[in-house]
Amino acid sequence: MRPILPRRRPAGAPWPRSARTRRVSLSCLSGLRRAGLSAALALAAAGPVQAAQPWPAKPVQFIVPFPAGGVTDIVGRLYANELARLLGQPFIVDNRGGAGGNIGARAAAEAAADGYTVLLGTVGTHAINPTLYGNLPYDPAKAFTPVAMVLAGPNVLVVNPDVPARSVAELTALAKRKPGALNMGSSGSGSSIHLSGEMYKHLAGVDLTHVPYRGGGPALTDLIGGRIDLMFDNLSTSLPLIKDGRLRPLAVTGPQRVPSLPDVPTMREAGVPDYEAIAWMGLFVPAGTPADIVERLNTATREAQKSPAVAARLAELGAEPSTLDAGEFGAFVAAETRRWPDVVRASGARAE
Q1: Any residues with CB less than 8 A from the CB of 146 and at least 6 apart, and which?
Q2: What is the pTM of this model?
Q3: What pLDDT is recorded for position 293?
């Protein structure tokens, strides 16, 4: 039996419908493949451009680890506004108060190291709390990269005008004559204000009775009223009361005198060797944040300090603009972490 062979298509004759469909489909598929390849190449070419976008390319979370309305919050918002102006992206203040700043600091420590989370750290979160708290939920030395100082100012030792001491030497002599008789107020146990007083007690060898309050305001009220005798307070809050004559300043706690109180000596000048206690705040980012971002943020922060609004506020707080680069600020923070543990332990202060 002869096999049935397919008939040949006569020259010039049209292809059968099924064959034409196959040819169109193959042609379309080839076109789609070429289009897909072109799109893939375009995306691959665009990828490096997107990755190379300069920081910041979106809003930055600016964590303030204390409630709104306090000095830390005021300073944080001041800088957040200036950094947004200088860098062209919003710096959104996120108040994460609680546990002496530990809640906000922990949130920042656990954030991505991409430059889009910045912490306003303090002497408390980075130098005092590691000793004050028994189980700190973050390691300040390992979890963060220091970026820039935003404020460093002294506290001031003030007494009620009825206290018969017009110098630190006279106050020390009075305290030694009457151990435990003088009451020293503070904004709370373990605060930098409290520990400034404990440093004085330790270095001068005096016995004062610590009276902790829930904040500096109530303590100042009782100090003015004569219910307590002395206090180490933030310069910004005591200065108006000093000017009005309701408090008497004996010394400032920093390494040098302040322009707002030029006749008031430092604690060292007043006869307490090795005394230095500074209330400071600084910017930190999660460890591993690219160095170029750290450098740019440091530069912008120092530039922000030159703005009239920031410069005026720093002057009110008795602070001066910082000239520290990121490395120098890191060295300062490291020195502070060595300074405060002995003071905290000597005070007996403890927070859990």
Answers
A1: 282, 283, 284, 326, 329, 330, 332, 333
A2: 0.78
A3: 97
